[in-house]
Each structure stands twice: as structure tokens, then as C-alpha cells.
Amino acid sequence: MLNFDYHIPTKIFFGKGQLAKLGPEMKKYGDSVLLVYGGGSIKRTGLYDQVVEMLRQNGISWQELPGVDPNPRVESVRAGAAICKEHSLQMVLAVGGGSSIDCAKYVAAAAHYDGDAWDLCIDKSKIKQVLPVFSVLTLSATGSEMDCGGVITNLATYEKIGGGVADQRPKASVLDPSYTFTVPASQTAAGTADIMSHTMETYFNRTPGTYFQDRVAESILKTCIHYGPIALREPENYEARANLMWASSWAINGFLSDGKANVWTVHPIEHELSAFYDITHGVGLAILTPRWMRHVLNEDTVSKFVDFGVNVWGISADQAPYDIANQAIERTEAFFFEEMKMPSTLTQLGIGDENFERMAKKVRKTALEDGFVKLTWQDVVEIYKACL
Ligand code: NZQ
Ligand code: ZN
């Protein structure tokens, strides 16, 4: 295990009715806020009314940035920053899924920046000051509610870039699982796949001596495998929604990655798919993950797949390592594509091989060279092809 400095300062208000605690917390940082939200789900569910009532009761004035798209666009960040500057707003509050929260994080940084917001996505060293960020989470998936990352898309240049600095981590987040009762089945499945992928990006890692982190990771994966299908069948099952929600935060907030040299591979490969085809992030991950696993399974990595098969999928340890590894990959596929009913190929999404080389060459070099297994851009093309 490597050295690390543990510091995960987001205050979490978890459970039913916890929204009431957010106003007094926000008041410690200011009394004006930009309210950032998506395409209208929070209006349909009535959450919007609850949030503005909470702001009113606490004497917090607000402006709004509605219409943040899934795979949030840099245009929304620019618009949000302009509103913050015009009204000298002191805080940013996202109400929604990862897209709204990510957008809010970059709005909060761009509000203190004189140049174009896209500069901050390309080069995080330009982020010098950030307005305090808060979130009310409505979809269990990205972990953005408790991490400092954000991912912004520039469709004009086919770029989707993830980054972030410590100050972009929310000061406080409300995690009320009942807000996720209305998440449609397809997004519930995609969110579950995303939580699992965050966990696996850290789990499939070469840092030795991380027994503790690995066992915690296995628990998060088992939580998703157990509760994902229940949430699909029974959208209002509080227990399932609550376990998925807390798993979403833990998968990426640093608990799993502290102590590991940790470079992610599948996410950067997926981000190219989203950048070129604007697909749902978790769907891309589910399609890529088993193909990536097959591609990286070899003599050096098989023992990790044995752990994964035995400890996560409950496969009997009394078999040859490759048999266990292959069964584990098959079980992963069956979980995503049969149990969670997700699309299983890029072809199903209308994606052909027309941009594979271009996309593969854009994947960050470190993701390929310093990941679990060293890959070249040609490997990435092969992985994409296996997804057709
Ligand atoms: O836009 P609205 O109307 O709110 O509808 C959303 C959207 O259509 C809907 N939704 C959310 N909560 C709902 C709901 N519908 C009904 N009831 C609710 N309670 O779901 C759709 C998807 O929302 P979105 O926020 O886009 O989903 P998600 O949370 O999966 O976020 C995806 C984005 O986060 C990035 C992804 O790349 C993608 O851009 N990621 C962010 C990360 C981070 N910050 O650390 C890490 C991840 O790996 C990921 O890359
Ligand atoms: Zn993700």
C-alpha cells in the first residue's frame, strides 16, 4: 500500500427528509446561489419546489441554470458562469445527477475565471478559485456528489474531458434515496454499471498489499449485483435505492483509491464514445468492460480475475485459474446484458467502426501506458471492434 493523505471533507446528509439540513449548512458560505439542474425531471417530481422552498426559508436568493444535458456541455458552463458573475453569486447548488453536479463544479470554477470556461477543462492548473459547491443527488451513478471530479463535453471538437481540483468537491450533499425512485429503468441500470466500473477501475490494479481496499471494493460490487436488479424490479424499494446511493459515493470518493497507484483505462476509452456519439456513459461502460477484461486477461493478470470470480461472483475456487477468470467475465456480461437488460453491442446503439482509429488515438496516453495492463491505440481499436 502506498502513502496517502486522507481528506474527504464533503458533509453528507443521508436519508429521507435530510434536505432540511442543507439550508443552514449553505448559510455558512453565503446567501445567494446559482441553482443548476437538468432537463426537467426535478420539476416533474416536485423536488424543484422543495428546494426553492428550502432556499426561501433560509433567506438564500437564487438564479437558475436549467437544461443541463446528460454529458454536460461547455456551453452550459459558460452560461452558468456568466449568471454568477452578473449577479455576484456566492455559491452553486446542483440538483440532479452527475451531469448537473459536474456542470455546477465547472461553473463554480469559471465564475472566478476571466477567460473561456473550456480552458479550465483542458488545464486544471488554471483553476485558482472555486465558489462553494453543494448538491442534491437524484441518480446513483457517478459519485460526483462526493468527489472532486467533473466531466465536460465539447461536441464541436468531439472532446469529453474529465478533471477537477479539490475545491470543486461539494461542501455538502443531500443523499435522499427516495429522490431516486423516479429514475427510469435504463438509467438505473446505467448508473449501477457506472458504480461498478468506478470500483473495478481501482480494483483491477497492480499496487501490491491493498487487501483492505480490495475487500471493500468487492463489497461494493456485491452490493450493486444484489440491489441493482431489485431497483429495476421495484423502483420504490428504499433499501435498494439507499444501498446503491451510498455505494455510488464510496466507489469513487477516494476510499478505494487512496493507497493505490491508480490510472483508469475503461473510462477514458468510453469517454471517446460519448464525445463522438453522445451515448449514456454507463451504457458505454457496460459494453466495453467485458471486452476490455478479455483483452487484458493474461498470465500476469489472471490471479486478479480469480479473486474477482471467487469473491464477487461466488465461483468455486476449486478450478483452473483461467476457467474461473472466463466464468467471471461471462457472469459480468450476463449481469449487464441479461439481468440489467442493457444494450450489449455498439451496433445496437447505431455505432459502426467509422471512427474507431480516430477515437483510439485520442485516448489519454497515461490511461493506456499506466493502466492495469499497458495498451496501445491499436489495442483500443480491437476492444472497440469486439463491441460491435
Ligand atoms: O436532466 P433531467 O431531466 O434531470 O433527467 C436526467 C437525465 O435525463 C435523468 N434523471 C436524473 N435523476 C432523475 C432522472 N429522471 C427521473 N428521476 C430522477 N430522480 O437521468 C438522465 C441522466 O442524468 P445524468 O445526470 O446525465 O446521469 P449521470 O448521473 O449518470 O451523469 C452522467 C455524467 O457524469 C459523468 C458522465 O461522463 C456523464 O457526463 N461522470 C462524472 C463523474 C464524476 N463527476 O466523478 C465520473 C463518472 O465516471 C462520469 O464520467
Ligand atoms: Zn463513470
UniProtKB/TrEMBL annotation:
Pfam families: ADH_Fe_C, Fe-ADH. InterPro entries: ADH_Fe/GldA (IPR001670), ADH_Fe_C (IPR056798), ADH_Fe_CS (IPR018211), BDH-like (IPR044731). The keyword Oxidoreductase applies. This is Iron-containing alcohol dehydrogenase. GO terms for molecular function: oxidoreductase activity. It comes from Ruthenibacterium intestinale. It is an enzyme of class 1 (oxidoreductase). Residues 188-387 form the Fe-containing alcohol dehydrogenase-like C-terminal domain. The keyword Disulfide bond does not apply. SUPFAM superfamilies: Dehydroquinate synthase-like. Coiled coil: none annotated. The lineage of its organism: Bacteria, Bacillati, Bacillota, Clostridia, Eubacteriales. Residues 9-177 form the Alcohol dehydrogenase iron-type/glycerol dehydrogenase GldA domain. CDD domains: BDH. Its EC number is 1.1.1.-. It comes from the Bacteria. Keywords: Oxidoreductase.
